[in-house]
Design goal:
The protein is built from eleven helices and eight strands. It is α/β, with parallel strands linked by helices and 252 residues long. It has an eight-stranded parallel beta barrel with strand order 1-2-3-4-5-6-7-8, surrounded by four helices. Bound molecules: 2-phosphoglycolic acid.
Length: 252
């Protein structure tokens, strides 16, 4: 059984103090223990959040890292630095990193491998642009990203790998892919992992949908067979909405 995983991607929001306040607010509520709840916070907030995570139900995540262990890479953050702050998940290859910061699949592949080599779990983001969807190229695009970004992984790595399908046209736009579209791509991702890494890898890998997930659409998205979670930007920045996302099963 794959455990559902709801991850907040705070992006470039919240100072260390504001981050502590939000995490404490979330922790005042009881979160569904059957759901893994993750907060992926800005690098500068990791220490502050880690300090208030004792006894918390939340798992800690980062939003990016470099693949080298240390050295002359001004402005970058290493896997060891994240591990030292008890980071468990690292988002890799978010479309904002790909588009704004020009990260390519060769770099993303190295980052995914480095996250795993350092005992952490990657949340690899893939997804197509609106033009690619209109042209009917979404599967080719996502397949290409998966084959390049996951190259070299072993079947057992998929116990730890999370893949977030985030159609770029749905991020921060209020437009959500329909639950059927999310399921179709999640099933395609699972099939591609299966063909490349074997049946067990396909059964193990957790697949999230991301793009304008909100308390009022999370349940429908999470009801899909191949969707195991959600990666959430905007709606993860306030405690009440993040809590209703994590507790999506409760008011069924
Ligand atoms: P959104 O962002 O929920 O604000 O659309 C999702 C993401 O970029 O991970």
């Amino acid at each position: 059984m794959r455990k559902p995983i709801i991850a907040g991607n705070w992006k470039m929001n919240k100072t260390p103090y504001q981050a502590q306040v939000l995490v404490k607010q979330i922790d005042e509520y009881e979160l569904d223990p059957a759901v893994e709840a993750v907060v992926c916070v800005p690098a500068i907030d990791l220490q502050a959040v880690n300090e208030v995570l004792d006894g918390s139900q939340l798992h800690l995540g980062a939003q990016n890292m470099y693949f080298e262990d240390h050295g002359a890479f001004t402005g970058e953050i290493s896997p060891a630095m994240l591990k030292d702050l008890e980071v468990e998940y690292v988002i890799i290859g978010h479309s904002e990193r790909r588009e704004i910061f020009k990260e390519d699949d060769a770099l993303i592949q190295k980052k995914v491998a480095a996250v795993l080599a350092n005992g952490m779990k990657p949340i690899l983001c893939v997804g197509e642009t609106l033009e690619e969807r209109v042209a009917g190229e979404e599967e080719d695009k996502v397949r290409g990203q998966l084959l390049k970004d996951l190259e070299g992984l072993k079947p057992e790595d998929f116990e730890k790998v999370v893949i977030a399908y985030e159609p770029i046209w749905a991020i921060g736009t209020g437009k959500t892919a329909s639950a059927d579209d999310a399921e179709a791509m999640a099933a395609f991702i699972r099939k591609t992992v299966g063909e490349t890494f074997g049946k067990e890898a396909a059964e193990r890998v957790r697949i999230q949908y991301g793009g304008s997930v909100k308390p009022d659409n999370v349940r429908e998205i999470m009801s899909m067979d191949d969707v195991d979670g959600a990666l959430v930007g905007g709606a993860s920045l306030e405690a009440p909405s993040f809590i209703s996302l994590v507790n999506y099963r409760e008011d069924l």
